[in-house]
Design brief:
This protein is an alpha+beta fold. Helix content is about 20%, strand content about 45%. It is elongated and about 65 Å long. Bound molecules: NADP nicotinamide-adenine-dinucleotide phosphate (NAP).
């Protein structure tokens, strides 16, 4: 089996990366950064986001596992003290795979046919470059609302515990094939109206954002933040692709939610 390791880059994560690499090679696994069957991410959830984006072109062939060197994570659920156990599990056991849904983002531009397609593991957000974001929101081809406010956040179920949660969105179990739209400080008064609640869309529904004022937007895809000019529309839906996590033991999602947000 071929493996790769990504590290957050701090001393603790790097030391662990070197140790893990040596152990896995001792167990006859091959280090291959280009075509790994398994990617071990060492750091935090943010590190796994970077690893995901590095290997988005081979999601059907690569599984991910995360070790956290800081606080408990949603994607990084092994602790450094367990690395010998994890190495043996990777080397000896045919692992189970848990698949989580991803968000597909298609950005189309004025003047021409080109479009860009991204996959997000957590979410995509849209903000105006300057001032209030004004966007027409279409759901399943029908006008839904004209949004005015700071921005919109469209998240995956596993991303629902990240930015989406800070916006008052619901936490969705990653077995649900859905996306969630959450508002950032919408303007609501006698003139302007938005629904005001987060919306959860099933896999066969598409959400389309169409600019009303201005065509330049600050659009994030997980940790990537880019300025997009001359935008005609931004389309969101559940992607056909999924991320595959290598599972060597049960670690129920609601326990991770409890341990991260509720437990002392
Ligand atoms: P960052 O600003 O360095 O870290 C953001 C925090 O979000 C980190 O504590 C990270 O955990 C945590 N996180 C990432 N994915 C998560 C998940 N699925 N569930 C719960 N927590 C999660 O940025 P970054 O490391 O490059 O990560 C980018 C992410 O930051 C974005 O995808 C977005 O979700 C999040 N973000 C959150 C807010 C907010 O909550 N107000 C604002 C902007 C961005 P680790 O420490 O384990 O890496």
């Amino acid at each position: 089996m071929k493996f790769a390791i990504t590290s957050k880059g701090d001393n603790k994560s790097n030391a662990l990366m070197h140790k893990m690499r040596t152990y896995l090679i001792d167990f006859d696994l091959t280090y291959d950064e280009e075509q790994p069957d398994i990617v071990v991410s060492i750091g935090g959830d943010g590190t796994l986001l970077y690893a995901f984006h590095r290997y988005t072109r081979r999601l059907d062939k690569t599984a991910f596992v995360g070790i956290h060197t800081g606080h408990l994570g949603f994607y990084a659920d092994w602790v450094p003290e367990e690395i010998e156990k994890l190495v043996i599990a990777i080397a000896k056991t045919p692992f189970q795979v848990s698949e989580y849904p991803l968000l597909e983002v298609i950005i189309r531009y004025q003047h021409g046919g080109r479009e860009t397609r991204y996959l997000a593991l957590n979410e995509s957000t849209v903000k105006a470059v300057d001032g209030t974001l004004v966007m027409d929101v279409e759901i399943r081809g029908q006008h839904f609302e004209r949004f005015r406010g700071d921005g919109l956040c469209v998240s995956t179920p596993s991303g629902s515990t990240a930015y989406n949660k800070a916006l008052g969105g619901a936490i969705l179990h990653p077995s649900l094939s859905a996306i969630q739209i959450a508002e950032m400080a919408s303007i609501n008064n006698k003139v302007f109206r938005t629904v005001g609640s987060p919306l959860v869309l099933p896999a066969h529904h598409t959400c389309m954002l169409k600019p009303v004022n201005g065509q330049d937007f600050q659009i994030t895809i997980d940790h990537l933040n880019l300025l997009h000019k001359d935008v005609k529309s931004i389309q969101y839906r559940v992607a056909d692709e999924k991320i595959r996590f290598a599972r060597f033991r049960p670690f129920p999602f609601w326990k991770r939610v409890h341990d991260s947000f509720v437990a002392d």
